[in-house]
Specification:
Blueprint (H helix, E strand, L loop, with lengths): L5 E8 L2 E2 L4 E2 L1 H22 L4 E4 L1 H6 L1 H8 L4 E4 L15 H19 L5 E2 L10 H8 L3 E2 L15 H4 L10 E4 L2 E5 L5 E2 L4 E2 L1 E2 L2 H6 L1 H18 L3 E5 L21 H15 L7 H14 L3 E2 L2 H9 L1
Parallel strand pairs: 1-4, 1-13, 1-14, 4-5, 6-7, 7-10
Antiparallel strand pairs: 2-3, 8-9, 8-10, 11-12
Helix pairs in contact: 1-3, 1-10, 4-5
Length: 307
C-alpha cells in the first residue's frame, strides 16, 4: 500500500535582521514589502498552502503582514511574543510561558478574526513540560521539535535541545509532562524534518547541494513509513536590506556560545540571502510538486489525526 505524501511548509515571521544579526523593527518593513509578497507569490506558483508563525511583536507593528497570508488561504500560527533570547520559552517560568502564549494568541486572533491553534517557539526553545502549558493556552499543535538534528551546538538553548536526539520523527501526540515523547495529551507535535542536517531555509541557502542530498534521504524515509515532510523557512531570508556599520550583537557572555551562536553562525547564515534565494527555494517546492505531495497546514494535519 502506497504511503501518503504530505508536505508542510512552515514559515517563522519575525523582525530578525539576518544580515545585521539583530532584531530590528525596520526589518519588519522589509518582511512586509519584500519577503512576504515574494514568498506568497512563490507559493501560489506551486500550489502551496502553508503555515506562518508570527511573533506578537511583528504582528503589532505590521498587522497587514498577518492578514496578507490569511487572506490568501494560509494558516496563521503563533511564534510567541518576541524573539529576544532573554524571553525564550525554555527560560521563562510556567506562568510567564502561559502569559506569553495567551497574549500572542489574542493579538493574532484579533487581526484575522479566526482561531489560532498552532505554535512554534522562537529558536525552537521549549522545555519538557511545555505541552501542558500549550494546552492550557488553547493550542492544539506545536512544531518546535527537530528530531535528530545535530547542528544544535550552533544555537542557544542547546542543553534542552539534546532531547531532539531521541524524539519521534513522525507527527505524534505528546505526553503532557514531556513534549519530546509520545503520549495522550491533546497537543500534536509536528517535528521539523532533519537527518543529521536540518531541512530548513538556512541550510538550503548555505549548502544547496548537500540540502538536496538530505531531502533525497528524507524522501526515501517517507516512501518507507509515510513520515511527513516539514520544511522551515523565514520571510526575512528573502529580503534585500542594507548592512549597518554596527558590530555583531553579542547575546551571550560565554565566549564559546558567543563564537558558535553569534560569530560563526552569522557568517554562515548570510549566504544567498534575498531575491537570489527564491530560485533555490523554487527548486525545493518543484520537487514536492513533481513527486505528487500534498501541501497542507499544521491545523489541517491535526484535524486528520483526530478524525
Amino acid at each position: 500500500m502506497a504511503k501518503e505524501r504530505i508536505c508542510l511548509i512552515t514559515n517563522d515571521v519575525e523582525t530578525t535582521s539576518i544580515l545585521n544579526h539583530k532584531l530590528k523593527d525596520e526589518t519588519g518593513e522589509y518582511v512586509l514589502r519584500q519577503g512576504m509578497p515574494r514568498l506568497l507569490d512563490l507559493y501560489d506558483q506551486y500550489g502551496v498552502k502553508a503555515t506562518f508563525f508570527y511573533t506578537g511583536h511583528i504582528a503589532r507593528l505590521f498587522p497587514e503582514v498577518v492578514r496578507m497570508a490569511y487572506d490568501r488561504g494560509h494558516e496563521v500560527g503563533s511564534h510567541g511574543l518576541t524573539h529576544e533570547t532573554s524571553q525564550a520559552f525554555d527560560v521563562l517560568t510556567p506562568q510567564q510561558q502561559l502569559e506569553h502564549l495567551k497574549t500572542s494568541k489574542s493579538i493574532l486572533e484579533d487581526i484575522v478574526g479566526d482561531q489560532v491553534v498552532s505554535f512554534r517557539a522562537p529558536a525552537a526553545r521549549v522545555d519538557k513540560g511545555f505541552a501542558q502549558i500549550l494546552q492550557e493556552a488553547g493550542f492544539l499543535v506545536d512544531s518546535s521539535v527537530c528530531p535528530q538534528r545535530l547542528d544544535m551546538m550552533f544555537s542557544f538553548g542547546v542543553a534542552k535541545k539534546l532531547h531532539w536526539i531521541t524524539a519521534p520523527r513522525r507527527a505524534y501526540f505528546t505526553r503532557a509532562d514531556n513534549i519530546f515523547r509520545k503520549g495522550t495529551s491533546g497537543v500534536l507535535e509536528v517535528p521539523v524534518s532533519a537527518w543529521g542536517f536540518p531541512y530548513i531555509g538556512t541550510f538550503m541557502r548555505l549548502a544547496p547541494g548537500l540540502n538536496r542530498l538530505t531531502r533525497r534521504v528524507l524522501y526515501c524515509e517517507t516512501l518507507c513509513n509515510g513520515r511527513q515532510f516539514v520544511f522551515l523557512t523565514h520571510p526575512n531570508e528573502f529580503i534585500d536590506e542594507p548592512r549597518d556599520s554596527e558590530p555583531i550583537q553579542r547575546r551571550s557572555s560565554n565566549p564559546i556560545a558567543y563564537w558558535m551562536g553569534d560569530v560563526l553562525r552569522h557568517k554562515l547564515k548570510v549566504k544567498n540571502l534575498g531575491e537570489k534565494a527564491l530560485p533555490i527555494y523554487g527548486r525545493e517546492l518543484a520537487f514536492f510538486q513533481r513527486k505528487g505531495f500534498e501541501f497542507i497546514t499544521c491545523k489541517e494535519l491535526y484535524h486528520r489525526k483526530t478524525m
